[in-house]
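Give me the fold.
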Amino acid sequence: MDSFNVLNKEKIEVNKMKSKDIFENLKSDYFLQKLFNILLKKKSLDIIKYNKNIKNRIKINIQDYKEYSELYSSIEIEIKPVEDEWEEYDKFIHINEENKIYYHIYFNDNKKEIKRNYFKENDKIKTIKIIIDYQIKTFAYLFYCCDIIESIKFKKFYRNNVTNMRRMFSKCSSLKELNLSNFNTNNVTDMSQMFYMCSSLKELNLSNFNTNNVTDMSQMFYMCSSLKELNLSNFNTNNVTDMCAMFSECSSLKEIHFSNFNTNNVTNMYSMFYKCSSLKELDLSNFNTKNVTNMGKMFNRCSSLIELNLSNFNFNNETDIDEMFSKCSKEFIMKIKSQYKFIKEEAFN
């Protein structure tokens, strides 16, 4: 395999001069970025075989780019729609007009690229493959309201510049399988409403999520009503400021693991666990609420709660507790208030 070295802004060293070989040997992210940018702007690129005399020169045209872009795109997604729902559907995938050049869509493993982002009955689709070039920076609303998608699998995910995943899978109400094992979130800052109303999802493995740069997780799992467990122990929430309604109406959720949550910068926890009616125990001993300005309805209608560690919570008065735990059992509210009195005495002493 020949290597490529960017010698300066104008010259690129290659040892094989065929277009296919050039694409097959691309290694450098910098090289890729330079190559694609020039192709898209100038439609061609001068490739120079470097030697002292700089004698050999060829051009890669835009057709070469299209032919081999599949090999060097950053993301490949496989989708399976719900069977027997083949009516024309114009919400299959939300692609910004400016970014259309970076998306390549194929039906039923067809080599031919599909130029539209919806499908029709005569397509007879069993699977859909989407190839996305690495220059895409936002996945916001990508599958928004795609309620006929049953399965989404990310097969490749590298050379990633994506920063926004707001409402990415929002209202995918038929989604039963979501394979994110190759998912890359290294640069993401916004995950708000990411899985909003994914009401058919029973499992969600987020073990490889990198949330180091995320600031907004509001309504992230809102109304994921079939989820029974969430393991978020690997989540880094150091920069998160908004957790409003993060788990709201996750009515089947029995366990949430977030032992490493850092809430030092969080200002909004309104309705965070609202209507999590299957939750019996929560250990929030690592939660710091000193900067939180809104905790209203935080545990409202958590009717099964019997054990809750709030040792690091800051309450102003008992009215706050009544607001936070409205519609919980009376016995449980009394228990929380007794803890609150103990906390007050400790603070006084």
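The two ends are 73 Å apart (CA to CA).
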